[in-house]
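ESCALATION

Customer reports they have been waiting on this structure for their group meeting. Please prioritize. Original submission:
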Amino acid sequence: MTVAVSGGYDSWASTNAPTTGTDPNAADDKDGVTNGAEYVLGGSIATNDLNKLPEVASGDGNLTFTFERDQASIDGTTIVAIEVGTTLDSWPDSYLVPDDEVAANPGVTVEKDTPSGFDTVTLSVPMNPDTKKFARLKVVTGP
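Update from on-call: job pushed to the front of the queue and completed.
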């Protein structure tokens, strides 16, 4: 028995990435945001989606990385992670973003339907012992 997922990245890409197709690493609308990230962040080809990018802050001894995930991107085939490193060349720490609401996974908080139709995802990790840290959103789509 074969189960077909209604919608998903391929369905989103057919409308929002018509020239690059299923390549989640391309930026079809040339706004610098990859197709995979736009899918997770609720972007579209019709808009410049830079305002949807995650926010990064440091304070109280922590690095905080926050973004809103479109609930439509929770399709059973898309993996979302937050990668953290002390340089832009290496991302040794990876934090999977769960589909469901959690208080800490470790350090990842998911608030469902905040705002409506989206989940607010936050990672908070200690800066110590590092003097600087970087974080990025990693999206992997698949069948």
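Sent to customer with the following note: Helices lie at 8-16, 35-41.
Escalation resolved.
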